[in-house]
Write a structure and sequence with these properties.
The protein has 123 residues and is of the alpha/beta class. It is built from two helices and eight strands; from the N terminus they run βαββββαβββ.
């Protein structure tokens, strides 16, 4: 028996609709209708991505310094600079400006719940 790798990613969020709208309108993700209750699933590839209501006992307001600290979430984008400019213009907090690296141009922003998300453009 062996684990073969990541198969699903979901972020627990304070306001499900607000988070889903952010990922849909700001990042261009498309919702999938067949999502479990309390979650919004997006059509991402190769790994499904979702936002969901917190599990029992999870208090995102007690996460220090912010939710997801210690976990690196990277998303692929076809144009990192364009996405960066759009997010910055909308007032999204940018933690790390676009910088060339081994995964192409990459930058990191905070989503509405404080998760640090890195976007890169090398496939």
């Amino acid at each position: 028996m062996a684990v073969t790798g990541p198969d699903f990613i979901a972020l627990q969020v304070r306001d499900l609709e607000r988070a889903a709208e952010f990922y849909e309108t700001r990042l261009g993700l498309r919702r999938v209708q067949a999502a479990p209750p309390g979650a919004v699933l997006f059509a991402t590839s190769p790994i499904p991505f979702a936002v969901r209501e917190p599990l029992p006992g999870v208090d995102l307001d007690q996460a220090t310094p912010r939710p997801g600290t210690g976990v690196a979430l990277w998303l692929h984008c076809d144009d990192s600079q364009e996405l960066h400019d759009s997010l910055a213009a909308a007032g999204t907090t940018i933690l790390r400006a676009p910088e060339a690296g081994p995964f192409g141009l990459a930058f990191t922003f905070l989503d509405p719940d404080g998760y640090a998300v890195t976007v890169h453009d090398k496939a």
